[in-house]
Amino acid sequence: MALLSSSPSLPVSSPNYRCYPSRRLCLNPITATQVFTPHHIDKSSLTISETSEEDQLWAAACLRVRSFHEFKPSTFGIQDHKRYLAEREFEALKERIAGKRTGFNRVSCLNATLPLSQLLTLPDDDLCAQCKFSENGEDRVVVGTLDVNQCTSLPDEITGKKPEGIEGQFSRGYLSNVCVAKELHRNGLGYDLVAKSKGVAQGWGKLGELFSGITDLYVHVAVNNEPAKQLYMKSGFIYENDEPAWQARFLDRPRRLLLWIGLP
């Protein structure tokens, strides 16, 4: 189960990938070929926290590339292309967190990480090799990631309606780039990430004297991504709107649903 939502990343120019003229990352629907035997983990050593450290942001960018793209193993130069995608996402992520992207009041990268030692029994070391970083002398791996965005809308996505008026500039938030390493699905990591993101959104505090933190949180999800829809619904999100069919066709992607939850 890969968890897909809107993702403000960068365009690619390769014959092996679809590219949307006005988007910066291709989000592919989950197919049966992407189902993996889950690897059960000890969540007592799981850490979920905000980060602006570059080594963690790089690891998160690599996880997003391997989660949101399907690659043909026989493609020439595939490793170079993966690195290109990761570098573009890494730079865009740093800019969003630093407040250099127009339209985003605040962006936080939230990562779920595990010690490398717990993942050495994975049948493929691709995850550990690509998404590893060091913290306090310990090697850890980013196994889940998402962005919490304080903004009125996300590029090329249908816009939430709550709250109305000028408060929407400060009190409306969106989750994006939500993904969990495919090897670790069915461990509840998606639920843990979403739960943590609600606390982050609520805890951003007051802006001036009129507005508090995020009160209305949104997420976009493809209509054919049943695992992701179940995740969000069980996390308290409800349906608010859906993307017009013409817009999905224009952007060459599955139609999206817009889900909402009110935060206390």
From TrEMBL:
Cellular component aspect of the GO annotation: chloroplast
A GO molecular function held by the record: acyltransferase activity, transferring groups other than amino-acyl groups
InterPro entries linked to this entry: Acyl_CoA_acyltransferase, GNAT_dom
Gene3D superfamilies listed in its UniProt record: 3.40.630.30
Transmembrane residue ranges: none
Pfam families: Acetyltransf_1
Domain N-acetyltransferase: 142-237
Protein's UniProt name: N-acetyltransferase domain-containing protein
